[in-house]
Specification:
The chain is an all-alpha fold. The chain is about 80% helix and about 0% strand. The chain has one domain (about 5-155). The protein contains 5 helices and no strands.
């Protein structure tokens, strides 16, 4: 099935967000580079989610993926507001969970597109399992990483 212009924009923004989000995650926090990469990540995420909200190919109406796009937008907006208010811990939480959601969506999309799982209940079950595993893993791992990141910023 050929991809639409909107679908191509969605994929391009997703790939940009994956790349810039990874840079934000691995580079030192609080630097000018972190801010520049973070801004680019946020712009890519907004573009990705706006495109997602306009895509109705799957079932022709608003569905669960649209709700996840709205949740993603809320995380990005709350993360930006938090950092402007000096709430670095809240900013870290919102932005890392936004990136975790992006990773989960990417893996879910890849799994659903596998020919052996394509469509139907199997594909959806694998997608839901992927999302649950990413969320649970993030809830376990991210607090440790947050403490380290915040300690490094405080030490500077």
């Amino acid at each position: 099935m050929p991809i639409s212009s909107l679908g191509a924009a969605h994929v391009a923004a997703a790939l940009a967000a994956l790349a810039f989000g990874l840079l934000v995650f691995v580079l030192p926090k609080g630097t000018q580079m972190h801010r520049a990469m973070g801004f680019t990540y946020a712009v890519a995420m907004v573009a990705l989610n706006v495109a997602a909200l306009l895509i109705y190919r799957a079932n022709g109406h608003f569905g669960p993926f649209h709700l996840l796009a709205l949740l993603s937008l809320v995380l990005i907006i709350r993360g930006i507001i938090a950092v402007t208010r000096g709430q670095v811990g809240r900013h870290y939480q919102m932005m890392t969970f936004s990136y975790l959601g992006l990773l989960s969506a990417a893996v879910t999309q890849m799994l659903i597109q596998l020919p052996v799982l394509h469509g139907g209940f199997r594909g959806m079950a694998v997608g839901v399992a992927s999302a649950v595993l990413f969320t649970a893993g993030g809830a376990i791992i991210l607090p440790r990483l947050q403490r380290r990141a915040l300690a490094a910023v405080a030490a500077d």
